[in-house]
Structures are given as C-alpha cells and as structure tokens.
# Entry
Amino acid sequence: MTDPAQTDLSKDAAARAAVALVQPGMRLGLGTGSTAAIFVRRLAQRVAEEGFELRCAATSKATAELATSLGLRVEDLNDIGWLDLTIDGADEVDPDLNLIKGGGAAHLREKIVATASDRMVVIADQGKVVDRLGAFHLPVEVIPFGCQTTKTQIQHALDDLGLKHRPILLRKRDGETLLTDEGNYILDLALEAIPDPQALARRLSAIAGVVEHGLFLNICQLAIIGCPDGSVVELLREDIE
Ligand code: 5RP
# Structure
C-alpha cells in the first residue's frame, strides 16, 4: 500500500516540474483532479511572484473555481480558441503514453481541451504508471436518456472484443447518481485489462448514447512522473515512436 504522504510529495514534484514548462503569455489548459489542483496552486504562486499574463481554459467547474479563486485568468475555451499547452493528471499511463482518465468524471471536457492544444503533458505519481491499461475502471460518459440501452450496447461491444462478463457500474456519489458538468452519467467499466485499447475506443465511440470514453490514445506527448524525493522521470512520446 502506497503511503499517501509519499504520493502527495510525488504529485507535488510532478506539478512543480510542469509549472516550469509554462511561458509568459501562454494559452493554457488546466486539468482536473488532485494532481492538477496542486499544479494550479503552484502555477498561481509563480504567476503572483513573477507577475506575467496567462490565458487559462479549465477542464471542469471545480478547476475553474479553484483557478479563479487563486487569481488566474480563466476564460471560455471558445474565446481562447486554441491552447499552447494543457497540463492534466491521469488515472493510468501506459508505456506508449496512452491514458485512462475520468476518475474525476471530467474526461469529456479534459479530452476537448487536450485535443485543442499543441501539447498535452500529464503529471502523475508512480502509482499511475502501468504496463497495460485497464486495472482502473474505464469511465464512459453517457447520456441519461436510454442509458440502460446504452449499457447493453456497451456490453455487446465488450462481448465482441472478448471482454465478457465485465461489470459495468453506474457511478454514484453520496448515494446519488453522479452527474457530470454536462449533466450526464458515468458508467465505469471494470475490465481488469484492455488488450486492444484502439479497438475498444472505436467500438465505444460508435455507440449513440456514449458521449465520450476515458481512453486518451495518442494525445499525450509527455508524462512527468513525480517521485517522493522531489525528483521526476520524464516519459516522452518521441522516445517511443
Ligand atoms: C479527472 C481525471 C484526473 O486527471 C484523474 O482522475 C487523476 O486524478 P488525481 O490526480 O486526483 O489522481 O481524469 O477526470
């Protein structure tokens, strides 16, 4: 079992390294989750000390509120248009820098923001690095209308891909069905392992009631993995191509 204090030190190390990538005047995407929140705090600290301008787009209401409260300039993505860099956390990072995201139910906005950026950089602790995606339940955002039918369609897709009898769980929070920032539901797919992420992504995207799944394939260019001693390991996409 990983010590939570060590994990926090690791997240902070990754966040600090990511803050160093930010250049004055950048248009920046801000991720969601505990690691992204540490990044936002560290970034706000640097901006306050150095007094430069940034234009930020947030990937969730929670991040927008945090960033605004710390004095960062948060704008609608439509007003910024395109971003230079997005910094976000992840639930799993594989050796090809493919990711599972959505543990914080924000992967829809996270994917929109990441794919509207020149570069997406993931910050994470070592516990997120995996050999193969899938131990973390894969989040799938679905429209509430017909969600049982959508769930059945997902089940059929999983069956076709050799992933039979994998539980599909409607995400709850405090006993109530969780609603995303867009008012949708999250189905968490307990897959254990995903042998072919590309095939699964294609099948999920083809289901009408699916808004977006948490597989981020070929989107992240750099992962900064923090260590408890404050050092970081950088995994670069160029290294793997
Ligand atoms: C939110 C996400 C987060 O980036 C992911 O869940 C990691 O969160 P944390 O940094 O708290 O471990 O995808 O939708």
About this structure: The longest helix spans residues 34-50.
